[in-house]
Structure formats: C-alpha cells, structure tokens
Amino acid sequence: MNSESTTLLQGTLDMLILKSLVAGEMHGLGVSRRIQQITGGTFVVKPGSLFPALHRMEEEGWISSFWGDSENNRRAKYYRLTKAGRKQLEVETKRWGRISWAIAQALEAS
Amino acid sequence: MNSESTTLLQGTLDMLILKSLVAGEMHGLGVSRRIQQITGGTFVVKPGSLFPALHRMEEEGWISSFWGDSENNRRAKYYRLTKAGRKQLEVETKRWGRISWAIAQALEAS
DNA sequence: AACCCTCCTATTGACACTCTATACGTGGAT
DNA sequence: ATCCACGTATAGAGTGTCAATAGGAGGGTT
User: Fold this and answer.
1) What is the CATH number of the domain that holds B75?
2) Alpha-carbon Rg for chain A in angstroms
3) pLDDT of chain A along its 110 residues, tens only?
4) Whole domain around residue B6: which residue ranges?
5) Strand C CB shell (< 7 Å)
6) Is B3 on the interface with A (CB under 8 A)?
C-alpha cells in the first residue's frame, strides 16, 4: 500500500481486498485497480503488498482462486469471495467502526 | 496496543500519544491511562508498546522528557510536547482524516 | 524476425512496529 | 516481613508492508 498512507493500515488491506471482491470475481491487478478506484485514489496497492496478502487470505479460506483468461487474453488468476470471506469482511468492517469511532473520540478530546 | 484493536493501527499510536500530551506534561503510565480514557477504553497501550514509542518519539524531537516525582511520590519520567510535536500531531491528524475518509468511501461502494 | 511495451503474477530482502513476557527498584499497606 | 501497585525498561518473536526485481506472454511496430 502506498500513496502517503504508507504503513498506517496494518490489517486494513485485507478488508479492502475483501470489499473489492464483493463486486464479483477478478484477478489480482483487477483487485488492485478496484481498491484504488473505491478509495478515490488514496490507496495504491503495489504487487509486493498485494500478492502476499492474496496468498495469505486464500490460505485462511476467505477467498478462492482459479486460472482463467483476462479481458486482454492473458493468463490470470481470478479470485472470488468465499462464504468465510463474507463473514470476515463483516467482522473487519465492525472492527473498523469501533476503531475509527475511538480515534474520533480521542481527537475530539480536550 | 491491545483490546481487540490489535495490530490494526500501525503509526496511529504516535498520534494518540501526541494527542494525550496536549493536555499537559505527564509520565509514561499517565500517557497510557489517558489514551485509554480518551478512546473510551478501546485502546489499551501496554508498556512494551508504550516505552519504545516514547523513546523513538523523543529521538525524533516530538517530545522532551525530564525526571520528576509522580503524584504517588515515585520517580517518574515526564514527557511534554515540543513545538515539532505539535506540528507532527497536526500532520498525523490530517493524514488520519484522509485515510478514514478513503476507507469510508470504500465501504460505502457498491 | 526482432523489438518493445503493457499486462499479469510472483518472490526476495529489508525494515518498522507492536506484542508478550520478563525484569527490577521503590513506596505503602497489612 | 511480605505483598501489591507503581513506574520504567528491554529482549525476542511475529507480522505486515515496501522497494526492487524477475519473468512469461500477448500485441503492435518496423
């Protein structure tokens, strides 16, 4: 992840990947582009962050993959959300809610 | 940092420490308690996270320290915000704003 | 054919941060 | 005496992200 967000969001990358895949199955770079899109360009996920995360999440069973052809006729590995992945997205979304609430409280404090 | 927030907020600890010290100088454990307070109990910073962060931030020049006596008559190292620290808090606050906005966008996306 | 560019996946090595666990000294209470 | 709370401190491990790099494969150009 980059673009001046650097380093801030441990664990949040997973949430963004899961959220991206809600829109439907897509390959790695597709996920990367979608994240950039839905965050208004704020987050740019580079390959060195993306693929390790994807592999890890597949091991955890949150996503599944299969080889296919991209829209440009290239070999591409597609990912899709599993049931466990949807559950996980929900968990992480709630967690994010708690955390951003807490930080908002802190920043408002006098 | 702990209490089910675990691992999520790389870099945010600094912001919370800086924000805590806006209320006035205090010693290490005091900072820890204040963070817990202003985040509504969501964040609990343990010594193993707190002190390394404090040392690092002092090296960066964001806070300065001096030895004194605590309210319980014990030796305690007090920390206070420097001018650079106030500046840094501002920088990190703005960054947080951008990031939480971007993630909110992402989570609202369809 | 040779070439280059883009797409797409992938790995490596370094780095930064946080956590758990542990340690130690001291003041106050029982 | 003993025990607990206070307060600071460090070591070691684990995790996640990054920059840099690699390489195959398709499409276009010359």
Assistant:
1) 1.10.10.10
2) 15
3) 555 444 546 678 999 999 999 999 999 999 999 999 999 988 889 898 999 999 999 999 999 999 999 888 889 999 999 999 999 999 999 989 988 999 999 999 88
4) 2-108
5) A 7, 27-30, 47-48, 51-52, 54-55, 70-72, 74-78; B 1-2, 5-7, 9-14, 45-49, 52-53, 56, 72-75
6) no
